[in-house]
């Protein structure tokens, strides 16, 4: 059954960088106007219906109009230019900064019969020549280009000699100069309109703040374009922001209890923490690789490719990873450090759950994040206006972290969209309360004032908290701080509570940090609090927040594998076939078919080719290529399943298949536990999270409370484990 039929010698993966049309037949639409877009969607891509505003956008561009499209990460922007490129005469030219992904994008298009190619610096002259020839011969539906190509007169001349159906400017926020992904070459794209005024342009981005939107429109000279702003909600993603105590341990706990064997991305701020975290996960039996700009390009490419091709790999990365990656089954995105902006956070978390199945966005956030980021801004290059902008971004991110309201309502409001509490974020699942923290705030602020006024001293959080709590540490005695009138006035709160107070005062700008040691100083607004003229509301962490959220999440998580019992072995058989096929073609498994499509096939069990063609995700080309093979799997399935259940160890799926397809891919034995099998299967070195670097780090942190180490330099490879050391009894929740 694993003998896939001969159609596979037309493997799209075998077609190099646009080296010639693969099959001769291709996907271009016939001629009839009207329902053409719909027809292409159905026939080529195999989808039943357009999503949201896709249809409107597609028709507008087919009609020759310019469009600015704002749609969330994973929302389906690609079809908005791919379908018009197929319908309009000529080649759709796609400008994209994602060079490392062009091969995969082209492979995926070729897999559905679209004639696609790319031109970028990874190709040699010969490969480029081939693509250019195809373009000139009118044999390309889509041509992907890196933006820097368009600064070369030679490329412009080439485009002049061919026929262009449209320009798509993907990841258009790269034109925004103060954005997190600014690419200078994007600025030059305003010339497209001058040089080719007749060719419609469509700019697309998942970054949707008013400021970015305006900047895209003006810099690309798209004032005349129609604007399409989709809903930014990604309802299948569960947003959670947890109090950071020992981030690596917390992460491990999350992966073990909720995402065993799942693919996911873990974001860290520094390269060093990326390396350490990846190592920590590997030591604890999780399949993880690092990814950051300091790694060799080849290593990066290899890790990205593994992430795309394998099931269940975790990539620990700086923000340099993930943009435009169309891996549908990323089940979680975790942040171990505070993102610098809500836009960045939303784009990164949006990489989870593109297939619409339940996914988790989890962020660990604590005092040190605020200290660190404020310091980074103070030390950043650029003028005052630039720093103010960075600070505004951070403030919005902090407000999201400290809110007692629905996270999603907050997020969507940030993008100017109204909504009601979602029921699928941590604050909805385990509502935190707000409490009046005015008195503790006054106590803390007056300690800072007294140290400064009476002693001419400034100290960091650790010493201030020790004074408040009346701890006679060596450092307190050394500085005679037990003689201060504020000594011990805060004994009613615990250390974690005080750190929460500091964090929230910093977040609300009622307190500030200064210098290399992160010393605390007052702000202009502090006086009002001290004088009793301002109430300070604080967030009280819910008791056992994680658990409440987790119970629900765990239930939700069953959904992806929640197939009728009899469909399960068929699904597994299909996955095994897919893994084998993908491997032979050298493409990611989802390029063959998404899980969702296999699931539908397993449930519906189509009896013939026509019925199979009606399944969502099965287009004309894939039907022709894989139809017979799938029907064979379906015919074999049940009996083969029984045979294999008896002898699971000799299951049909080869070892290679299993590794390409992940834990659930190894034959029929997996059943509904399949997705959990990897990490639970008792790996070597699968020690408790308490062992290894986590414990070492907390040991260090405990001493840190008394003699806090200097906060590291902004861009240095700092270690977040040094901070946030709540005493043992505080683990359950700061105010429990
Ligand atoms: N109408 C549709 N029906 C079913 N699936 C769809 C539809 N439109 C898009 N998809 C799927 O949704 C996924 C995300 O699409 P796409 O890659 O275009 O997202 P995007 O908006 O470009 O996201 P990003 O901002 O991350 O680049 C893809 O796997 C795609 O196949
Ligand atoms: Mg995209
Ligand atoms: Zn909510």
Walk me through this protein's architecture.
It comes from Streptomyces olivaceiscleroticus. The chain has 736 residues and is α/β, with parallel strands linked by helices. It has 4 domains: 8-233 and 665-683, P-loop containing nucleotide triphosphate hydrolases (Rossmann fold, 3-Layer(aba) Sandwich); 237-352 and 359-430, Rossmann fold (3-Layer(aba) Sandwich), CATH 3.40.50; 435-540, Arc Repressor Mutant, subunit A (Orthogonal Bundle), CATH 1.10.10; 565-647, Orthogonal Bundle (DNA polymerase, domain 1). Helix content is 44%, strand content 11%. The protein contains 31 helices and 17 strands. It has a 7-stranded parallel beta sheet, with helices on both faces. α12 links the parallel β10 (288-291) and β11. α14 packs antiparallel against α15 (384-402), α14 (367-378) runs parallel beside α21 and α24 packs across α26 (595-604). The protein binds adenosine-5'-triphosphate, magnesium ion and zinc ion. Adenosine-5'-triphosphate (ATP) is lined by residues 47, 50-51, 54, 71, 73-79, 206, 324, 326, 328, 354.
């Amino acid at each position: 059954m694993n003998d896939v039929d001969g159609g596979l010698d037309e493997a799209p993966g075998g077609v190099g960088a646009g080296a010639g049309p693969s099959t001769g037949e291709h996907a271009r639409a016939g001629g009839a106007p009207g329902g053409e877009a719909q027809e292409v969607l159905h026939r080529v891509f195999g989808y039943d219906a357009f999503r949201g505003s896709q249809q409107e956008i597609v028709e507008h561009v087919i009609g020759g109009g310019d469009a600015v499209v704002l749609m969330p990460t994973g929302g389906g922007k690609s079809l908005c230019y791919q379908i018009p490129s197929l319908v309009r005469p000529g080649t759709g030219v796609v400008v994209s900064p994602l060079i490392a992904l062009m091969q995969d994008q082209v492979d995926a298009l070729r897999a559905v019969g679209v004639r696609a190619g790319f031109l970028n610096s990874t190709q040699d002259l010969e490969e480029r020549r081939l693509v250019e020839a195809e373009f000139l011969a009118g044999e390309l539906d889509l041509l992907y280009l890196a933006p820097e190509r368009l600064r070369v007169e030679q490329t412009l001349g080439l485009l002049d000699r061919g026929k262009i159906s449209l320009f798509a400017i993907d990841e258009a926020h790269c034109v925004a100069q103060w954005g997190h992904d600014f690419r200078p070459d994007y600025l030059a794209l305003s010339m497209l309109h001058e040089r080719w005024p007749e060719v419609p342009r469509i700019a697309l981005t998942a970054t949707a703040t008013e400021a970015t939107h305006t900047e895209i429109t003006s810099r690309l000279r798209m004032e005349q374009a129609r604007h399409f702003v989709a809903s930014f909600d990604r309802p299948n993603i569960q947003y959670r922001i947890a109090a950071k105590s020992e981030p690596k341990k917390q992460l491990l706990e999350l992966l073990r209890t909720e995402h065993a064997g799942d693919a996911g991305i873990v974001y860290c701020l520094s390269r060093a923490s990326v390396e350490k975290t990846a190592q920590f996960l590997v030591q604890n039996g999780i399949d993880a690789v690092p990814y950051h700009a300091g790694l060799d390009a080849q290593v990066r490419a290899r890790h990205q490719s593994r992430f795309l091709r394998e099931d269940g790999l975790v990539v620990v990365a700086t923000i340099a990873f993930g943009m435009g990656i169309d891996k549908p089954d990323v089940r979680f995105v975790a942040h171990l450090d505070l993102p610098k902006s809500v836009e960045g956070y939303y784009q990164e978390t949006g990489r989870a759950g593109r297939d619409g199945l339940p996914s988790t966005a989890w962020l660990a956030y604590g005092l040190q994040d605020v200290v660190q980021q404020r310091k980074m801004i103070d030390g950043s290059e650029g003028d005052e206006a630039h720093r103010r902008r960075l600070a505004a971004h951070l403030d919005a991110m902090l407000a999201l972290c400290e809110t007692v309201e629905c996270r999603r309502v907050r997020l969507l409001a940030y993008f100017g969209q109204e909504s009601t509490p979602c029921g699928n974020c941590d604050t909805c699942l385990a509502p935190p309360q707000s409490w009046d923290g005015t008195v503790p705030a006054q106590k803390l602020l007056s300690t800072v004032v007294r140290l400064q006024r009476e002693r001419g001293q400034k100290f960091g959080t650790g010493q201030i908290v020790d004074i408040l709590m009346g701890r006679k540490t060596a450092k307190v005695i050394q500085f005679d701080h037990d003689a201060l009138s504020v000594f011990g006035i805060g004994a009613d709160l615990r250390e974690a509570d005080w750190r929460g107070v500091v964090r929230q005062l910093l977040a609300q700008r009622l307190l500030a940090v200064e210098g290399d040691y992160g010393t605390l100083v007052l702000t202009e607004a502090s006086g009002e609090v001290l004088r009793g003229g301002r109430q300070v509301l604080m967030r009280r962490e819910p008791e056992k927040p994680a658990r409440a959220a987790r119970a629900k999440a765990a239930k939700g998580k069953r959904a992806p594998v929640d197939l009728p019992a009899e469909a399960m072995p068929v699904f597994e058989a299909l996955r095994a076939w897919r893994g084998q096929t993908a491997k032979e073609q050298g493409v990611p498994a989802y390029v063959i078919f998404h899980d969702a499509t296999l699931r539908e096939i397993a449930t519906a069990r189509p009896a013939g080719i026509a019925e199979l063609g009606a399944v969502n995700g099965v287009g004309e080309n894939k039907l022709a290529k894989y139809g017979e093979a799938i029907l064979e799997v379906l015919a074999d399935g049940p009996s083969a399943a029984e045979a294999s259940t008896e002898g699971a160890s000799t299951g049909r799926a080869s070892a290679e298949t299993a590794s390409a397809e992940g834990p659930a891919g190894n034959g029929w034995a997996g059943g509904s536990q399949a997705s959990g099998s990897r990490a639970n299967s008792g790996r070597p070195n699968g020690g408790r999270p308490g062992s290894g670097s986590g414990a070492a780090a907390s040991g260090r942190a405990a001493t840190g409370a008394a003699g806090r180490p200097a906060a590291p330099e902004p861009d240095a490879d700092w270690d977040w484990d040094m901070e946030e050391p709540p005493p043992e009894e505080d683990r359950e929740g700061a105010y429990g």
